[in-house]
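In this supplementary section we document a worked example of the pipeline. Step one takes a protein sequence of length 576 as its only input; no multiple sequence alignment statistics are reported here. Step two produces a three-dimensional model, which step three serialises into structure tokens for compact storage. The input and output of this example are shown verbatim.
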Amino acid sequence: MTTYLDVPFKEKDEAKALGARWDAGARKWYVPEGTEVALFSAWLPASLRSASPVSVPSSELTPAVEVAGREVALPKKGVTLSQLLAGVAQAVAQAFKSGVWTIVEVVEARTKNGHVYLELSERTPEGSVLASARATIWANVANKILPEFERATGASIASGIKLLVRAKPVFKPQYGFSIEIDAIDPEYTLGDLEARKREIRTRLQQEGIFDANKKLPVPWDFNAVLVVAPKGAAGLGDFQAEANRLERFGICRFIYASSRFQGEGAALEIRVALLDALKNWNSSGNPGPDAVAIIRGGGAVNDLAWLNDYELAKTICSLKIPVLTGVGHERDSTILDEVANIRFDTPSKVAAGIEQVIKKRVEEAKANFELLTTQATRVANASRAVLDKDFTAIQSGAFRQIATAKQTASELMGELQLGATSTVHDAKDDARKLVTDVRHDAYQLLAMAKRDVPGTFSEMKAEASNVVRMARAVTTTRLEAIHDRTLLDVCRGRESVEQGLQDVTLSARQIVTGARMAAMSLFREVAGQGPEKTLGRGFAIVRDEEGKPVTSATDAKSGDGLEIEFRDGRVAVRIK
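The serialised model returned by step three reads:
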């Protein structure tokens, strides 16, 4: 007679492990012939449960063994291992008919054919293992409870995560002891992750360093940044897509240090990578980085939970360099985000934030350069106007002085010529008058001589001759005196004119020399404030195709050719 069993579907594996077989026609499990029926008492029909177990002659029995709360007699010659373990399986099944809520820590997790196989443990705070076991979440159960758990916590079942699970112990003769999980409480996992962050936060606050890095001044500009990230991670690729543009144009330099960001010992590895990179940077003699960026792409909450480490957070708090974090997605938050100087949602936003600061500095530099250029142009124009005005005034004054000197010389020459002419005319008039007087006296004396004393004609003639000679001598002497005086006056006039011309010339030269020196001084001042000096200090002048200065980004239209003038030459560029 075949003994059929009432085996629920979820317990079929247990029944099969004890030796039960499947009858496809009856669609039921049954006890094969020669197998102890008592092993399947949990699944016997109600009509057979009260029946006595298969009897064994008392002479062949050994002392009874209690199995599942009842005694089972064993043959004297012993039982098979499967029978022994089947009894253990039945005892376990009877003791744990339903699951028990149990706190466990996942050591290892793997999936096969939809089933989830776990290695569980319980450890002391020091890391010593108190208990360990294998566990299974069958595919039909996993498809139901795991999506709900991941939606509620954002975490996935992986190494290192702590869970509150409903566990049912199972013992199978073929596979040994294991645990079947049919439920997970997400609230416990969330509370454990948050409790870990709260503990670290409290310790740092008690030590007075929780916000030490956050209080550091935000970097004014970025020239060099140390980046700590997992090697080959997607988040690093997103960051480098933005950072490589800045590095390609020599705007900012990025040095990368690689480390694991999840798994046992990841936090220690991050600390070592960070501190070693800073040590090597300082030993190279280069100025320290402007900031440290700690980045990684998104992941499950428990993947990011490895970053909630006290020693790692303390290291960041103690750094004298601002720390930028871009860990996970916008919804993710770690203790590193809380203690960092600036927290970004993603790695790409870290690079974008650095670029925004650099762009702000560039815009300020452009505005200052335009202001400086405008001021320099205004000063140069004003100096040029003053120089032109002073030069015109000096030139006009010089021309005026020369014209005045020429006019004065002309007037002096005219006066001298007029005086000399007047003196000569006066001398001529005096001589003519003397000659007339002499002739008149001579005629009178001659007439008197002829009339009164004819005998004295010879005497008178002689005397007249003497008088004529005397008159001629006097006239000659006076003419010579007049001539000498005229020459002396002319010489004095010429000397006076020449002295006046020399004075005027000297004064004009002094005025012109002073004007030239003032002009040269103004030219030097203008040259010192000109574009060449500005170019020598590292600035550049942007001109359009017509050679006109371009002073704003609006004027630099896309597609137009531009020319940038540096200190040592010019370079043609085109706007894209």
